[in-house]
Write a structure and sequence with these properties.
The complex is a heterodimer of chains A (about 450) and B (about 450). With about 450 residues, chain A is α/β, with parallel strands linked by helices. Chain A is about 45% helix and about 15% strand. Chain B has three domains: about 140 residues, Rossmann fold (3-Layer(aba) Sandwich), CATH 3.40.50.1980; about 120 residues, 3-Layer(aba) Sandwich (Rossmann fold); about 160 residues, Nitrogenase molybdenum iron protein domain (Rossmann fold), CATH 3.40.50.1980.
């Protein structure tokens, strides 16, 4: 471990904030270097995660079995009704299909699926190989749509055709085809769509409740606890509220252009950002001041109970250091603020898919000496965690065991989280989880941080 | 709601797979390569493949899993992935410094026609492989076979590319591990030691994927078969391949290359398969079975006899990988249990024949299907038509167990929601005893749960 340095060619994706030194912009939006142990995924992965929570559609993966197997029910995007999204459907392409084409198999699979499950729509994901053998997915989808009467939407998510972000875009493209096909009758003028909220651990329900309490109609959530009919009438909303900017900004921009719906970027993590996301929506409806009043009321009530309950954690966690490595950069901003509010500082901040603006902002936000990384790998993460003496790592599935091997706390802020971390209650849950992990008695038995017992 | 989506009526399907009882080749190749000391698995394909395999293995083992990727782009898929792989080899040796890079292909690189043999040879010719280091490869197209096939291909690749015969035989035996857990490999080694037999076990993921907490993130944990051991496998007296699907291809390769004769056995899960394993070692090495092993066996048989009354006639459904579910089925039959439905997504005539033979003799009415459309959806449909008392399978079985309200024993790969498989073996007499304990607990806990108050027993 010690002798492994930073990957040559990666220096431009790493940055340490230092007083008085101007450094070039971080290089991002690039694909990973061949041969790196990257934590990133592919185009297909991006599409799959964005569309996955749409629960009354079937999600058919067209390709060899793996892509469907590895994405089978691995995200905790919960549904209040149908759960078709939690099943795994694949055309399981074989050698003969690769040689002679998989269109027929795709057609039959679709017909069988639609007959079996009577879904509201079908999403067909192209995988790497489909991009090579040249199946005309569009034509098959059109044919099946005509025969079955439901929307059958191709998602062009061949793994190698870009990065995960391109997958987000392919998913949004499929959603765009649905939006505008439903009736917008009876939709209130005071209405929004919640974009980029995937209802992990039921978070979308929490957020939705706040907005509804303010007197705002939530037309659709894209895509948490998603329903095809709601997506179809999303163009009837007055405002798009975008979280997880990485995945949904493209859709918001498209909807602005096509339907004239403006959008705002928000985050539901931490007191500050959560409150702001309510106020920012309220500001959009100045002709109805009750909305802002209600937003203030919610914030003051929630903070009144939340703030005192956080003090215990803050006292214990004061001076502890955190490392953050998550998918999208926008989440990093909120996490830095949220961690500060419980007395912790951030010594490493990074993301898989942040863009130039994100990293510029990150630089501005971070403390002196904070390391900022794009598309990092386990070697770098371990190195910086040890060097900077972090007590906590916030990340996803591949980062978790690294934290534990190093003997530091961990908080899953990715799709495997089990408890809602969004909203005011989410801030409490977050603080509790961080507190429990960082202060756990188990660490006293573990040789910590590369040292000895 | 979940899986209540499964309908009772079984219909022929023309291509569709629902809830697969298998995954694709490359993850098996990655797992096998992790059982070589100082080896970094390398996925020659898109970035997603590598990420998915690492995530799945990490969830299964709760351990960091290191592997690199060629990170294919559109350019690579048009012009071929040779440049990516050559660049990757440079990067990996320069930065991650493994002793070995084990490259496996993917559906993408196979379809564009990348020839790993040619590319790795070019890497060698171009001097990209430092002295004393190795780049090995296995072709693992995702559209053929399953994860088990990928494992078998990589293990065969390891055998072919490392084994050397010096002409002088060594007093040692190869044990080629079929797909099993680190705990199972550790137990195989323990049994060999107790028998007083020198073995080379490969691959060997013990001390790699069950590593202790050390306060460090070690890129290459201390476990894994070493290059020296692998080279010497060509001079071994005999190879014992544990599993006809996942291990035998490597034994055949070794025989071909170094003329090491082999015998194929089942993975020693359960009494009968362990008996055959112990007898085979005893025979090839000419050693008697030590008392310690005999006592292990005695304890297993003792519990089988003591608790027989709770198991006989219990109806079981199971799904999983050929080399594991074959001996498991035999064990269940030995326990007088009734395997009613058996499914494996892994195709193969050899396995079908073996399983059919076992069932024809002892349970001809059992439903059995492997290969295409042998998925969990079908298994679940069968279970709805002919209910069972107990289900065995990987974590995805929990949906069916919940829907049918039956006890469930986690067995196979992947297990994403429990620990234990890394630490406690299913193989050998003591591993089988633990498996038996699990079966008894599952069945008897259910009996307790469902018992009428007046029939709720203290002594069982």
């Amino acid at each position: 471990m010690e002798q492994i340095g930073i990957l040559e060619g990666r220096q431009k994706q790493i940055f340490e904030k230092r007083q008085g030194i101007t450094q070039p912009d971080i290089a991002c939006d690039t694909s990973s270097l061949s041969g790196s142990v990257s934590q990133r995924a592919c185009v297909f992965c991006g599409s799959r995660v964005v569309l996955y929570p749409v629960a009354d559609a079937i999600h058919l993966v067209h390709g060899p079995i793996g892509c469907a197997a590895y994405t089978w029910d691995i995200r905790g995007a919960v549904s209040s009704g149908p759960e078709l999204h939690r099943l795994s459907f694949s055309t399981d392409l074989q050698e003969m299909d690769v040689i002679y084409g998989g269109e027929k198999k795709l057609y039959h699979s679709l017909i069988e699926l639609i007959e079996q499950y009577k879904p509201k729509a079908a999403f067909i994901y192209s995988t790497c190989i489909v991009g090579l053998i040249g199946d005309d997915i569009e034509a098959v989808c059109k044919k099946v749509a005509k025969e079955t009467g439901i929307p059958v939407l191709p998602v062009h998510s061949e793994g190698f055709k870009g990065t995960k972000k391109d997958g987000y875009k392919a998913a949004c493209h499929a959603l765009m085809k649905l939006i505008g096909t439903g009736s917008t009758e009876d939709i209130s003028k005071y209405s929004i769509n919640i974009l980029g909220e995937f209802n992990l651990a039921g978070e979308a329900w929490i957020i939705r409740q706040y907005y509804e309490k303010m007197g705002i109609e939530v037309v659709s959530t894209l895509t948490g606890d998603g329903r095809i009919d709601a997506v179809r009438r999303a163009h009837g909303a007055t405002l798009n509220v975008v979280q997880c900017s990485g995945s949904m900004t493209w859709l918001a921009k498209e909807m602005e252009e096509k339907y004239g719906i403006p959008y705002i970027r928000v985050s539901y993590f931490g007191i500050e950002d959560m409150s702001k996301s309510l106020y920012d929506v309220a500001i959009h409806f100045p002709d109805r001041p009750e909305i802002m009043e209600a937003a203030k009321q919610i914030v003051s009530e929630e903070v009144k109970t939340l703030y005192p309950s956080l003090q215990k954690f803050k006292k214990a966690l004061k001076g502890k250091k955190a490392a953050i490595y998550v998918g999208g950069a926008f989440k990093t901003f909120s996490l830095i603020k949220a961690l500060r509010s419980i007395g912790m500082s951030v010594v490493l901040a990074g993301s898989q898919t942040g863009n130039k603006d994100d990293y510029a902002r990150l630089k501005e936000m971070c403390d002196e000496g904070t390391v900022i990384v794009d598309d990092s790998n386990p070697v770098e993460l371990s190195k910086f965690i040890l060097e900077k003496g972090a007590d906590l790592l916030i990340g996803g599935v591949k980062e978790r065991p690294i934290a534990f091997k190093l003997g530091i706390g961990f908080c899953d802020h990715n799709h495997e989280r089990k408890i809602p971390l969004a909203g005011f209650i989410g801030m409490y849950n977050f603080a509790l989880e961080v507190y429990q992990s960082v202060m756990s008695p188990v660490w006293q038995f573990a040789p910590r941080k590369g040292g000895t017992l | 709601m979940l899986l209540r989506h499964t309908s009772k009526e079984v219909k022929e399907r023309e291509g569709l797979t629902i809830n697969p009882a298998k995954t694709c080749q490359p993850i098996g190749a990655m797992y096998a390569a992790l059982g070589i000391h100082g080896c970094l698995p390398h996925s020659h394909g898109s970035q997603g493949c590598c990420s998915y395999h690492r995530s799945t293995l990490t969830r299964h083992y709760k351990e960091p899993v290191m592997a690199a990727t060629s990170s294919f782009t559109e350019g690579a898929s048009v012009f071929g992935g040779q440049a990516n792989l050559l660049a990757a080899i440079d990067t990996i040796f320069a930065v991650y410094d493994p002793d070995i890079i084990a490259v496996h292909s993917t559906c993408l690189s196979e379809t564009i026609g990348d020839d790993l043999q040619q590319i790795t040879k070019k890497a060698s010719d171009d001097g990209k492989i430092p002295e004393g280091k190795y780049v090995i490869f296995a072709s693992t197209p995702s559209f053929v076979g399953s994860h088990v096939t990928g494992y078998a291909n990589m293990v065969a690749g390891i055998a072919t590319q490392f084994a050397e015969s010096t002409g002088v035989k060594k007093n040692q035996f190869n044990i080629i591990a079929g797909w099993m857990e680190p705990s199972d490999m550790r137990e195989i080694k323990r049994m060999a030691t107790v028998m007083g037999v020198n073995i080379v076990l490969f691959p060997d993921t013990s001390d790699v994927l069950d590593a202790p907490q050390t306060g460090k993130h070690v890129f290459y944990p201390k476990g894994g078969t070493t290059v020296t051991e692998l080279k010497s496998s060509g001079d071994s007296l005999v190879s014992l391949a544990l599993g006809s699907i996942s291990a035998e291809p490597a034994a055949i390769a070794l025989e071909k290359k170094c003329k090491v004769p082999f015998e194929t056995l089942d993975i020693p899960i359960g009494l009968s398969a362990t008996d055959r394993f112990i007898m085979a070692i005893s025979k090839v090495a000419g050693v008697t079975v030590p008392d310690e092993i005999t006592a292990d066996r005695g304890r297993l048989v003792d519990v089988m006899c003591d608790m027989e009354q709770y198991l006989h006639g219990k109806r079981v459904a199971l799904f999983g990988d050929p080399d594991q579910i074959l001996p498991l089925t035999e064990f269940l039959l030995d326990l007088n249990m009734k395997p009613v439905h058996i499914v494996s997504g892994t195709p193969g005539q050899r396995f079908e024949k073996q399983m059919r033979q076992l069932l024809d003799e002892r349970s001809p009415e059992t439903n059995f299907k492997s290969g295409l459309q042998a998925d969990m959806f079908l298994l679940h449909q069968w279970m709805k038509n002919e209910p069972v008392d107990l289900l065995f399978g990987n974590t995805y079985g929990k949906y069916m167990a919940r829907d049918e309200d039956i006890p469930f024993i986690r067995f196979g790969f992947p297990i994403l929601d429990r620990i234990g498989h890394s630490y406690f073996p299913n193989v050998g007499y003591s591993g089988s005893l633990r498996l038996l304990e699990k079966i008894l607990n599952a069945v008897m806990d259910r009996q307790d749960r469902d018992a009428l108050e007046e029939k709720f027993e203290l002594v069982m």
